[in-house]
Amino acid sequence: MAKRFVAIWFPHLLTDWLVIRRPELQHLPFVVAAPDHGRLVITAASKTAQAQGIHAGAVVADARALIPDLQVFNNRPGLAAQLLSALCKWCIRFTPTAAADLPDGLLLDASGCAHLWGGEAPYLDDIAARLKAYGYHIRIAMAGTIGAAWAAARYGQPVSVIHSGHEARTLSALPPAALRLDPLILERLQKLGLSRISTFIEMPRAVLRRRFGPELLYRLDQALGREDEALQPLEPVQPWQERLPCLEPILTATGIGIALERLLTVLCSSLQQKGKGLRTAVLKAYRLDGKIEQVQAGTHRASHNVAHLLKLFEHKIAAIEPDLGIELFILEAPDVEDVAPQQETLWTTGCSLESIGLAQLADRLAGKAGAPAIRRYLPLPHYWPERSIQATASFTEKPVTGWPTDHPRPIQLLPRPEPVEVSAPIPDYPPMLFRYKGALHNIKKADGPERIEQEWWLEAGPHRDYYIVEDEAGRRYWLFRLGHYSGSEPPRWFIHGFFA
Amino acid sequence: MSAAKKAIIEQLQQELLLLHGFKPPSNTTVQMGLGALEKAFPNAVFPTGAIHEFLSDAVEHTAATGGFVAGLLGHLMQRGGACIWISATRTLFPPALKAFGVIPDQVVFVDLQREKDVLWATEEALKCEGLAAVVAELKDISFTASRRLQLATEQSRVTGFLLRHQPRDLNAIACVARWRITPLASMADNGMPGVGFPRWQVGLVKVRNGKPGAWQVEWAANRFRVITENTALPNPVRIRKIG
Hints:
The structure holds two protein chains of two kinds. By secondary structure, chain A is of the alpha+beta class. Helices cover 27% and strands 30% of the residues of chain A.
């Protein structure tokens, strides 16, 4: 089958996008500019601004001299690529093979697609009409080679179809820039007065190669179809999804369970083939009355184990209300990760944090109690007790710093320190006795103080002087005094924990 | 009693213990380093793969229990298993575990809202083979529920610790031992000032097929040190029904 390519050119891609977002700009002159060597250089100018003589590459200050009320927008690097990739995705409705052609175009491989629209002209008209309806200015062309389509879109008629074999005739009338040439070669052609492709297309190849290098011939061959050129098409993301339409509406939990098992079996086998596992699974049940019931399950490590996933959904099936019945089930895996195949061990020495058994247990617990209920703690480089640990949901995260052992820490820490009444003999000595929850404790032994400063860059406040104290019954406490001694007010003491 | 009779009785006792699930010491048994205290257990082996119950009445007792359990966990986790700590009212401060030989980031904490969920989660966790231990802070547990936990541990051989703080009802539950740990005044070496190593009165209130008792135990230099020999607990007054 003959190859057919479509090239779309967006002459005002960035400014069109701005106009779509802010329609009041439509008839105003405005530019997009980026700082370059200490001045603002225009990267794109609106249609109105271009009509008044402002083009990309000019300096904003010069443009302001021409149009005093010129609006200037900041250039976002990478925006054009982002827009083109979104448009490219949109174009997949016209052909399965679409590619972005930076900086301002799209290339579609339309071989065997146009007949669905009733011919090539209606095909192009449809694309052009839809893009124009969105607010983009475009020029579009279809040809048998990428090069010819590219040239015709930029230098030919606004909407042009070039039949295969007629490329040479169309190209003849176009300037050499239509061949996607290097500016140096273009300049040389210009100097020699070769202002149309027709002026050198018939020249002997050896002469062209000697004068302009191999690139000119290569591009010419590409445009004429003598040299192959490939597209780098955008690969649409494969959605991990399985559907199960039901002949009869499903009403029972058993039925839903069977449907879920079938969906999971198919989805998991396809996941397994690709070496992937799912982290989140969503089951959508489409009811007869048009409502959609939805349940979700998450895993701690990517899994494609049907039995395990089925168990996670087990007590969620009850949340689905079938009402009149469910006619369609869709199982989606929006969150998919690579799974490294695990080596089986002959003797299991223990269920470590990395093992599958623990991850599956955590999934079951999280399914009932919610994911935030399950956590590990990692050390943080802070002395302030409340900030010395960090909760993490991940089982694989490794601590950045070691667990400190230089200062003893209480095995039980109160969520917030509680005030106690204390009598201390002299400043900087541990207290003699303290009263906590009505009971009086005589202190027999004490260690301290361990001064922990409040980290002023995180929070303002006085420091704490911690004492480990033991009373007459051998009970060990962690007390602290807040701040310095001052003559005017009595110091405030708190209990913060209990030692083993 | 003749020596032959004694030997027969001992052999029969061994067989009975085997039927109860107490295995004689082998190279797979975990050394807990409890020294003289381990003699209280059948075969003089700390029973792993079973449920231990710890009672505490005050917050200070909970702290002492926490220290003792952390010391046990340190020994149990040496083979590379993870530990799960399930609670609805947790005040345990993970960095303190390091002093008892437990790497705190190897412990998975499950903080739930209701006691009922704690029980369910404990059962699920005890079913997971290969875990070093499961610690559950539970106030009350019925005998039936404890039987379920016991059955789960028998399958998976995971050691379970139930920490019961101020239980409403001191009912009998299916467990291999009932402990009561209270803090004791520490003794610093050589009369040095300050607070010494943590020291506890470790009471084995009940132990299945073993001898209950009380010991003074200290956690010093990353290991247990039993200070006093078994001081037998006063026999509980038995109320006999007459008639």
